[in-house]
Amino acid sequence: MKIESRIFNIITIFFFLSAIVYGLWAKEPVGTVALILVGGLSLIIGSYFSFVARRIEDRPEDNPDAEISDGAGELGFFSPGSYWPAGVAGAAAFAGVALAFFHVWMIVLAVGFLLIMVAGLVFEYHTGQGHH
């Protein structure tokens, strides 16, 4: 993760320098603000990767002398299949239609459906404290 954080931090510096040069050269505020915001977003990602890199142990791909067998083993839990993403997509589409027609009752219903679907997706494999 250290390499990824360095990449994003270099991209952040590039965007901030580009914003300065663009702002002085073009004197156009919208593009300057857009470059500053993109730099801020890449700063968020780079900072997150830096924090994660401090908390986890080095991965085999971070070591240039690593062998292929160093990366063997369990990689984590991956969901075998879920219907919740389809529900989230349907609720988001319903929310989009509700916002397009701006019917308040539909917006309230859509937000309710969306919250239920997102909660179902997030807590799909949560079994609680006593069930581990």
Automatic annotation (TrEMBL):
Q: Where in the cell is it found?
A: Cell membrane
Domain of life, per lineage: Bacteria
A Pfam family per the record: Cyt_c_ox_IV
Membrane-spanning intervals of the chain: 7-25, 31-51, 107-125
**What does the UniProt keyword field contain?**
Cell membrane, Membrane, Translocase, Transmembrane, Transmembrane helix
* Signal peptide (UniProt feature, chain positions): none
Q: What is its main location?
A: membrane
Membrane topology (UniProt)? Multi-pass membrane protein
Query: What Enzyme Commission number(s) apply to this enzyme?
Result: 7.1.1.9
**Record InterPro entries:** Cyt_c_oxidase_su4_actinobac
Known catalytic reactions: 4 Fe(II)-[cytochrome c] + O2 + 8 H(+)(in) = 4 Fe(III)-[cytochrome c] + 2 H2O + 4 H(+)(out)
Q: Name one GO cellular component term.
A: plasma membrane
Q: What GO molecular function annotation could you give as one example from this UniProt entry?
A: cytochrome-c oxidase activity
Which is a GO BP term held by this UniProt record?
electron transport chain
From the UniProt record, list the coiled-coil ranges: none
> How the protein assembles, per its UniProt entry?
Associates with subunits I, II and III to form cytochrome c oxidase.
In which family does this protein belong, per the annotation? Belongs to the cytochrome c oxidase bacterial subunit CtaF family.
- Main role? Part of cytochrome c oxidase, its function is unknown.
Q: What is this protein called?
A: Cytochrome c oxidase polypeptide 4
